[in-house]
Design goal:
Length: 133
């Protein structure tokens, strides 16, 4: 179990990102750091951007990959609403950058989606009593 005090690995960082050379070397070091940062933070933005493109006021249409990612996120959300805790945890942890994107493709989630497609989702989880109707 990960606690707040344990470091989270975001990927390999260069041992010496900049050796104090010229402008070209500094620019290359900044590009490497930018690529590492974008790679680590891209999944939530991709999910959100694909969802935003589906609004009727948006003139763009999502790419095939964006539509596939959005449909898989919706599938995980539907599984979560119907009681699949693993789907809820996977989607939320990736969206909040607490887990790597590969968590969305766990074998158990893929099998749960196929099973739900074949046998149905079952009853939805009840609405919490603390929320007003």
């Amino acid at each position: 179990m990960t606690t707040v005090t344990e470091p989270v690995e975001a990927g390999p960082l260069p041992a010496k990102p900049w050796s104090g050379g010229g402008r070209e070397e500094l620019a290359a070091a900044v590009r490497r750091l930018t690529v590492l940062t974008v790679t680590a933070t891209a999944p939530p933005d991709v999910l959100a951007a694909a969802a935003d493109l589906l609004y009727p006021t948006c003139e763009q249409r999502p790419t095939r990959l964006g539509a596939l990612q959005d449909n898989w996120a919706k599938q995980l959300e539907k599984l979560a609403v119907h009681g699949n805790q693993r789907a809820a945890f996977a989607r939320n942890s990736v969206y909040h950058l607490m887990a790597p994107p590969r968590r969305l493709l766990l074998t158990a989630l893929l099998l749960a989606a196929v099973n739900a497609g074949l046998r149905g989702y079952g009853p939805a989880s009840p609405r919490p009593a603390a929320l007003p109707d």
